[in-house]
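User: I'm preparing a small set of examples for a lab meeting where we compare how different chains pack in three dimensions. I only have the primary sequence for this one, and I'd like the structure in token form so I can line it up with the others. Please keep the answer compact; I'll paste it straight into my notes.
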Amino acid sequence: MNNFYKIRADVAGNWGENTIAQIAIHPPVIEYLDYEFADWLGDDLLTSFPIYIVSEKLANLLKISNLSGFELAFCEVSKAEIFHDLHPEGLELPPFFWLKIHGKAQEDDFGISQDFYLIVSEKALEILQTCNLHYADIEEVSV
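Assistant: Understood. Below is the structure token output for the 143-residue chain.
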């Protein structure tokens, strides 16, 4: 039996001004994503409800993983004014990709629970944990 895990990823920002979203429905449907960073502490998996993004490093691992329930897509990245205030030395961000989750929680390797949390299989978690997840909360999901 496969174990599954709930991940509460770090929130490093929010939707940027170029994001196109249908907000009249819940959860909102994002058609174009501009992730605007307020800060970045180094995690390779980030969120801002209802989306997830991954660093290029993690995206490359996922591309060759044969895991189910997700696709990778383009993600525009921008920096909020506070980002520049927090990093006057000019912190460079790596490229990020939109992690579009379409799998069924506790069946596919990536899914979204009824209460809108990211649920991943043990196989997916093993890959995620090869990258930085220092600020993510991870707990096993009880069946």
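A couple of notes for your slides: The chain has a mean pLDDT of 95. The radius of gyration is 15 Å.

User: Perfect, thanks.
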